[in-house]
Amino acid sequence: MLSCYRVLDLTDEKGFLCGKVLGDLGADVIKVEKPGGDPSRSIGPFYHDIADPEKSLYWFAFNASKRSITLDIQTDDGQEVFRKLVKTADVVIESAAPGYMDKLGLGYPALSQVNPGVIMTSISSFGQIGPYSRYKTSEIVLWALSGMMYTVGDPDRPPLLPSYPHSYLFGAMQGAIGTMIALYQRQALGRGQHVDTSAQMSLVWATGTEVHATWEFFRQVIRREGRMRLRTGTGIRTPIMWQCKDGDIGFFLLLGVNFVKPMSALVEWIESAGIDSGIMKRLDWNTVGWDEITQDMAGEIDGVLAQFFSRHTKMELFEGAANRGIQIVPALTAKETLEFPQLGVRDYWVEVSHPELGTTITYPGGFIRSTETACRIRHRAPLIGEHNEEVYRNELGLSTEELMTLKQSKVI
Amino acid sequence: MQAKPFEGIKILEFNWAGVGPFSLSYFAYYGAEVIKVETSRRPDITRTGSPFKDGIPGAERSSYFSWTLGVKKYDVTLNFNHPKGLELAKRLVAWADIVGESFTAGVMGKYGLAYEDLKKIKPNIIMFSTCGHGQTGPLAKHPSTGFTLTTLSGFNSMSGWPDRRSCTLSAPYTDFVSPLFGALALIAALDYRRRTAKGQYIDLPQHEAALNFVTPLMLNYAVNQRELTLTGNRCAYAAPHGAYRCRGNDRWCAISVFTDEEWDSFCKVVGNPPWTKDSKFTTLLSRVENNEELDCFVEEWTIHFTAEQVMAMMQAAGVPAGVASNAEDLFQDPQLKHYHHFHDLDHPAIGKCAYYQGPGFRLSEADYEVARPPLLGEHNEYVYTKILGIPDDEFVQLMEDGVFD
């Protein structure tokens, strides 16, 4: 869908996913790395645990569908080459500290002089302007200031960061959306523009209704509740994840007209398993609302459910629930995700060839299905400078002498 | 500022719940005309979800609905079980550039509104469907919500302490992940149509999209047969690294020290006490190794200051630090205020409320627009008489016939 567009990707892990998803949709995304390779290649995990810039699985994951060239944009020669590249590009994505690109003379005003049609997408933790824009940042700092951290964890311990850090992905995706809007608008506008993306704003949105509305409606703060959720406006807590025989399952008690059938089916199922569903069979699911449920009643319901769930495996519960129109899902491990039947039947996984490792690796498939395009990883992430020759010589038309000079001066 | 990017683009949504509307909200932010079709017998599922304003249930009082629909959309009601209702639905399709729906797989087909049907009405239509597991396969018709997909996709298994079971993330987390992919694909599809005149069908399977966020975890298993382990707030290459208790009631500040330079700055901020010179803490490796002891020292210092003071002092010295903001903090956050992130809007049933938000980016050439959520059927008259051009007397007749129920 986007094969007519060229994207120059200067990002680190704050912006990787932006270029990757544009690449999955067909854009020609060229990762511009420092000579020697992007420092983010040091992020683990690694292929067979070998810490090597060409073996970072994190890099593989979010730089697939891109090409790579090396270029030192801190040198005058490098900047000259970069400006030549910008002339051929539709989009430049960057995630440097705000002000850095301007300092190099490669900020949006400068690049738009070189190519008025170019769109520059800046992805940063807090945005290009404002009191935090120059703040030092890290995954945990972003997670904290977005409001996410305060709501995750056990009540008796500090707020928690996920053990799989991924908060930058929200900003990177918003950057991709902003880029796409700018590309669309360019047709009418006749020129590019600057997209200023804030990972904080992106993540604040994802803290969601329960956090924002509970404050706005009730001046109540959502805190970390382990696996429980506060049913806002009621003070009642119910679990959203439960332990079963062989792991965890997800189930959330929802009331209202749309949940009468599944709740009745669940009560019947519990009874047929020889468990007294107690309060659950006495409630009229057609009419009951949260205002009629006390914490004691909720606790009694939790007890019945916990007893029922603990007797079954997660797949038993999932399949039984699916047949009854109830929403119970297994908390899948990575292994179980790779083996999940629905994904297999739909041919979701993609085998991506890594010739230099002598192997293929299974990757998640595309994020959408389309009748016009195969949205998926097009090829593995590039090696350091893998496409230098292709891009500099064949596409940009640099001569052998020019390339030699740039290589000797370590610009490429 | 120029004209809105999506000015003149027409969007029809049979969406409900979160992911469908979120995927289309970017069009509404930037100038498209969006019509949201509901039935008054079974309104949007989020209209019936608590919390409600003042705790009083009502179709216009749910925060789920109003938070989700805080963009400019026309809201109409339409009775799909009335033959004339379906006829009007098809006339709306003819008006639209993009049609979105987020029902269980197969529902649109039952009403003769599958992609093949829509294409006959408008050959270059872009149709967007989203449900939990995609339109095919054994689970296609299995209902799902963000509350359960978040567990299925593994997000509720990735945060926690090594000695305990995992803690969950924001309840319907995937509802904030998958629509980002949906929105991107839809704008790309619109751009593609502008260039090629071709419409298309886009299906956003929410589980499949969400897994694009956890690719490293999948690769780590596929390659190394290793599952994620829970590590609390530890980081293998930073210490101190965590949320530290500050003065006040349940107040915390996150601090992360990666480099020796940051460590030196950190030591200066805490006043270079003797423990900072202890050989247990002088190198990154030793700090990481002795992080539990280090955390105790850090907290002995942070507890004397507010979280805001700790953040300000650390940041002034170049150490990454940030308040673990709670809901109240977010609405007061100076950076978010600088970007005018939250919008305070008035609503006939909810009153003034400040939780309306725009996108996570700002465009230099276009402003976005937010709006209070539409009321159920609020724009029936405008949409049916002005947009579809139904004469007033016929509109009244259709209303009496229950076509808009």
Q: What is the H-and-E element order of chain A?
A: EHEHEHEHHEHHEHEEEEHHHHEHHEEEHH
Q: What would the principal axes of the Cα set say about the shape of chain B?
A: elongated
Question: What is the alpha-carbon Rg of chain B in Å?
Answer: 26 Å
Tell me the distance between the termini of chain B: 41 Å
CATH superfamily membership of the largest domain in chain B, which one? Crotonobetainyl-coa:carnitine coa-transferase, domain 1
Largest sheet of chain A: 6 strands, parallel
Counting H and I runs of at least 4 residues, what is the number of helices of chain B?
A: 17
Structural class of chain A: alpha/beta
What does this structure look like?
The complex is a heterodimer of chains A (412) and B (405). Chain A folds into 2 domains: 6-205 and 349-408, Rossmann fold (3-Layer(aba) Sandwich), CATH 3.40.50; 240-338, formyl-coa transferase, domain 3 (2-Layer Sandwich), CATH 3.30.1540.10. Chain A contains 16 helices and 14 strands. Chain A has helices at residues 16-24, 57-63, 76-87, 100-103, 108-114, 139-145, 168-189, 199-218, 260-272, 279-282, 295-310, 314-324, 334-338, 341-345, 388-395, 400-408, and strands at residues 6-9, 28-33, 66-70, 91-94, 119-124, 194-198, 228-231, 236-239, 241-244, 247-250, 329-330, 350-354, 359-363, 369-370. The longest helix of chain A has 22 residues, at 168-189. Chain B has 405 residues and is an alpha/beta fold. In chain B, 37% of the residues lie in helices and 14% in strands. Chain B has 17 helices and 12 strands. Chain B has helices at 19-29, 63-68, 83-95, 107-110, 115-121, 146-152, 178-196, 206-210, 215-224, 260-269, 284-289, 291-302, 307-316, 327-332, 334-338, 380-387, 392-400; strands at 10-14, 33-38, 74-77, 98-101, 126-131, 200-205, 241-246, 251-256, 321-323, 342-345, 353-357, 361-363. In chain B, helix 1 crosses helix 7. The longest helix of chain B is centred in the middle third of the chain and has 19 residues, at 178-196. The model of chain B has no long low-confidence stretch (mean pLDDT 95). At the A-B interface, helix 2, helix 6, helix 7, strand 6 and helix 8 of A face helix 2, helix 6, helix 7, strand 6 and helix 8 of B. Strand 6 of chain A pairs antiparallel with strand 12 (361-363) of chain B.
